[in-house]
Amino acid sequence: MSRRVGLLFLLLAAILGIAAVAGSIVPGLSLQCDLPQPCRDTSDPAHLLPEETRAALARDPAAHTRYDAWVARSDVRAGLAGLNLLEQGPVIFLFLAIGLGLRRLGERRKQVLARALPWVRRASRAAIVLGFAHLIVGGLRSALLYPGLAPAGGLQFPLDVNGVALPLLLALGVYTTVWALEAGIRAERDLADFV
Fold first, then answer.
1. How would DSSP label each residue in the chain?
2. How far is CA 8 from CA 57, 95, 130, in A?
3. Does 22 score more than 70 pLDDT?
4. Separation CA 107–CA 136 (nearest Å)
5. How many domains does the chain have?
6. What pLDDT, on the 0 to 100 scale, is given for residue 153?
7. Range from 7-16, 35-44, 68-77, 149-158 carrying the lowest mean pLDDT
8. What is the pLDDT of residues 93-122, one digit of tens each?
9. Is the pLDDT of residue 195 over 70?
10. Single pTM value for the model
């Protein structure tokens, strides 16, 4: 069973990887799905902005045109692509590590826990990196987009410490648990060698 769930996580990692590449190529790409209607994609770079700034752009067509021209610049697109990959990379690796860890747990061998724990440790490290990436990417994205907004919107550095604190603490808890389990496995091996 865990091997099948692991395969599902690997499949999700692949889908997220494709979505991250697509989001890096087309800034502001989003997929909107409504139940009665089929899914449709939109590629409005204004989706990268906070809601208040989007509202200000919607009221000022000239500012929206300036903003679109700014985002169309190759250096800005490259910066947005890098930020997107910085934000999505840890998520992809997190799903990959969880999938491989679950696949290791489903093996019919000895020491499956010892073989799975390194992947769980990597997943917890990815979750820690993801927490810090969420803290900084929003501010960096705002700084990159700000020149295309003036005077319609101001520079904002969204810093959601409360939204990141709990996931970071959980990731650190998992990392500590993995460390303790690995220490127990090492102690068990040492004791077996001694006896």
1. -HHHHHHHHHHHHHHHHHHHHHHHHSTTEEEE--SSS--EEEE-GGGGS-HHHHHHHHH-HHHHHHHHHHHHSHHHHHHHHHHHHHHHHHHHHHHHHHHHHHHHHTS-STTHHHHHHHHHHHHHHHHHHHHHHHHHHHHHHHHHHGGGTTTTS-------HHHHHHHHHHHHHHHHHHHHHHHHHHHHHHHHHH-
2. 40, 9, 21
3. yes
4. 39
5. 1
6. 52
7. 149-158
8. 999 999 999 999 888 888 888 888 999 999
9. no
10. 0.79
Which structural domain, as residue segments, surrounds residue 116? 2-194
Nearest to 49 by CA among 64, 32, 33: 64
